[in-house]
Design brief:
- The structure is a single chain.
- The protein has about 700 residues and is of the alpha/beta class.
- It contains 27 helices and 27 strands.
- It has an eight-stranded mixed sheet with strand order 9-13-12-14-15-16-25-24, with helices on both faces. The chain has a four-stranded antiparallel sheet with strand order 11-10-22-23.
- Helix 22 crosses helix 23.
- The longest helix is centred in the middle third of the chain and has 22 residues.
- The radius of gyration is 30 Å and the shape is globular.
């Protein structure tokens, strides 16, 4: 960065010196005008205006006075002649941006990369493409001579570039220590990792060359790592994406692997903030509409001719011994689970998925519109795509399983299950996955109870009625809450609750189910009594402060009190469920990290090899990242199939085995009133290196 900053300073100094010898005119900005429009009006480039008015890079307001080169048409002609001369020698082209043109269309037209276009026209990083701009189009394969990009390349050509590809479970602290640098220095060179550290991300350790530069990859940081063969860089392609409710720069950045500056460069309208409904230009390959809906005949075909998967191979799935107590204990030993030798008896799995094909066929709304607007259909299709990945995996492993898929035709109050049972489609199944709605899953379980067919409810969090053959795959809210309190007690922690008066359900839950938890006092106006909270914290023990409030002032007061108390005792901040207030700009993320913010979750973001393989294969097959429903579809389906090849019934494996898949844990237990529920919950916390970890 120091070379780039120095070079920009020199260019700025030389430009200012040149203009100081020419006359300039003062221009007052009118309402709604942009730098690009003003540049077109005076026949100068935006860079010329920025050279005389550096503050204009941050935007201009009405009545702002700008200094504009006054050479007019003559200067413009000289400038164009100079550019033409340069273009002749370096094969550069001057392109004037037309209405509806984008980065992608211009780059595609001239066959150049995004980086090359921005290097030749630095102002694009800030302003994006604007109508009337005159852009320098560099020659293919080389930076234009005399441009900032070429000077930068020349000034840094002899610098040694060192890179590091992030490996699973690596932290910023560990990487920084490996290269004798601080975390702050690492983040300064790689601002994209301030919020998180993605596995596989290429870090710049030394030098400032682009991370995708094939020539620089050879100088990798790991001496023992094999150098990769250079491969031609693929052109970036883009698509439109509509902003969903509550999305932020942070969430968009994680989705599309772009920094805030990169998002703004692609979409200048974002300079005014992220707004629901905005249509953004983003790279393809990270997110796209839901998987294509299967045609009616393909689902019927799956129902009539189930996928047949055969023979014998190790599964590679991990399994842990059943935790007998419902309280948290030490992690049990992890062993590899393989298909039991001699287990060749064919098993049958049935999936009941709510495609609602008859409704779709009679609906006059176009299929594309239906997919775009129907959240339930999108959830179904995502689950289906994940389940198909699980079926493909079982086929690869040659498991002796037949899979049938039927349309459950669900609404909240009805389903097609009774017809399927009447047609004798479900009675011989070894396990049934679905339906989605809890009441339909319970009705199915009741109907199949006499046949002893286990029914797995895959997505509902509602408390289930006591039915012996019903298995709730998602832990209920109370189970999730209980897990974090069990963890805190297992650590002999002092548990203090800061709960808003409006959170009556939380207050009642804690009072009725979590004895010994002390509540911090609130004032008559409902604000936190800070002195009382500090007085409840005990030295010599870990103090877990459970904070449940959406009030920003109370959140800030609680955080400040706990940070002050860290000088005399151990403190950790805990929440029981997602809190949108913590995602606002008023709450500093660093403070949450200092307090090791902890919360219970039914899913994790696993970096284990098996999970990474699934996500990679899913992207290759579906051209998108797997959603939580796609991952759930894989986890529930694959877990069910693997339990059936252990030489035991599904019921027996549920009583004996706790399994972990990509993002979900299945730790079934028998409820006192009947039926089975899952208590597979992860306790996650933010570590000091800004990574999210599972608590032991």
């Amino acid at each position: 960065m120091k070379y780039y900053s120095t070079l920009l300073f020199l260019v700025f100094f030389v430009t200012c010196s040149a203009f100081s010898q020419e006359k300039v005119v003062k221009y007052t900005v009118t309402g709604g005008e942009t730098i690009n429009q003003i540049a077109v009006k005076f026949k100068v480039t935006p860079y010329d205006i920025y050279a005389l008015n550096p503050d204009a890079r941050n935007g201009v307001k009405p009545n702002t006075v700008l200094l504009i080169p006054s050479a007019g048409a003559k200067t413009a002609a000289k400038s164009e002649a100079a550019v033409a001369k340069t273009s002749t020698s370096s094969k550069e082209i001057i392109h004037e941006v037309q209405p509806k043109e984008t980065f992608y269309s211009i780059e595609h037209k001239y066959g150049i990369s995004d980086e090359a276009l921005k290097a030749a026209n630095p102002f694009l990083e800030k302003d994006g493409v604007q109508i009337g701009q005159k852009l320098v189009i560099p020659a293919k394969g080389a930076a234009p001579k005399g441009t900032v990009a070429s000077k930068l390349a020349k000034s840094t050509a002899q610098e040694k570039y060192v890179f590091h590809d992030v490996q699973p479970k690596e932290t910023k602290f560990g990487i920084a220590k490996q290269y004798n640098m601080t975390v702050a220095e690492l983040e300064k060179r790689n601002p994209e990792i301030v919020e998180n550290l993605p596995v596989g991300y290429r870090l710049t350790i030394k030098g400032t060359a682009p991370k995708t530069d094939a020539a620089s990859v050879a100088n990798t940081a790991k001496p023992a790592e094999t150098k990769k063969t250079d491969s031609p860089k693929k052109a970036t392609t883009y698509m439109d994406y509509q902003v969903k409710p509550k999305e932020t720069f942070y969430s968009l950045g994680r989705t599309f692997h772009l920094t805030q500056d990169e998002l703004v460069a692609l979409n200048p309208s974002l300079s005014e903030g992220v707004k629901e409904g905005m249509v953004l230009k983003v790279p393809t390959g990270y997110l796209a509409p839901a998987p294509i809906i299967p045609q009616a005949q393909s689902v019927e075909k799956a129902a009539e001719k189930p996928a047949i998967i055969t023979a014998d191979a190790p599964s590679g799935i991990k399994i842990v011994d059943k935790v007998k107590s419902e309280t948290v204990s030490a992690d049990p030993e992890v062993v590899e689970l393989t298909k039991k030798r001699g287990q060749n008896e064919r098993q049958k799995v049935v999936l009941l998925l709510p495609f609602n094909l008859s409704k779709l066929q009679s609906d006059t709304t176009s299929l594309a519109t239906k997919i775009k607007n129907d959240k339930f259909l999108n959830m179904t299709l995502d689950f289906y795509s994940g389940a198909m990945m699980a079926i493909d995996s079982a086929k690869t492993l040659k498991l002796p399983i037949d899979v049938s898929i039927y349309d459950s035709g669900e609404t909240k109050t009805s389903s097609n299950v009774s017809n399927l049972i009447a047609q004798n489609k479900l009675q011989n199944a070894n396990a049934v996955i679905g339906p989605f709605y809890q009441n339909n899953a319970e009705s199915t379980a009741n109907s199949l109870r006499i046949y002893n067919v286990p029914v797995i409810s895959p997505l509902s969090k509602d408390a289930a009625n006591p039915i012996d053959n019903l298995y709730q795959a998602i832990p209920s809210n109370d189970v999730v809450r209980n897990s974090v309190f069990d963890y805190m007690r297992a650590k002999n922690g002092n548990i203090v609750a800061v709960v808003d008066k409006k959170k009556e359900s939380v207050i009642n839950y804690i009072k009725q189910n979590q004895k010994g938890v002390v509540f911090a006092t609130l004032t008559e106006t409902g604000s936190l009594d800070v002195a009382n909270l500090k007085g409840l914290l005990l030295p010599g023990r870990m103090n877990y402060v459970v904070m449940e409030t959406g009030n920003t002032a109370m959140v800030k007061a609680t955080i400040k009190a706990l940070l002050d108390s860290q000088k005399t005792c151990q403190v950790q901040l805990v929440i029981l469920e997602p809190n949108s207030t913590l995602d606002t700009d008023e709450i500093t993320f660093d403070n949450l990290v200092k307090l090791n913010l902890m919360y219970p979750s039914v899913t994790r973001e696993s970096s284990e090899a098996g999970a990474m393989i699934f996500k990679k294969e899913y992207r290759l097959k579906n051209k998108v990242n797997p959603s939580i429903y796609a991952t759930k579809g894989f986890d529930v389906t694959f877990d069910t199939m693997m339990r059936l090849v252990q030489g035991k019934t599904y019921q027996e494996t549920a009583d004996l085995m706790t399994t972990e898949q990509v993002d979900n844990k299945f730790q079934y237990y028998r409820k006192e009133d009947g039926g089975h529920a899952n208590k597979g919950v992860y306790i996650l916390y933010y570590d000091s290196d800004l990574t999210l970890k599972a608590a032991n």
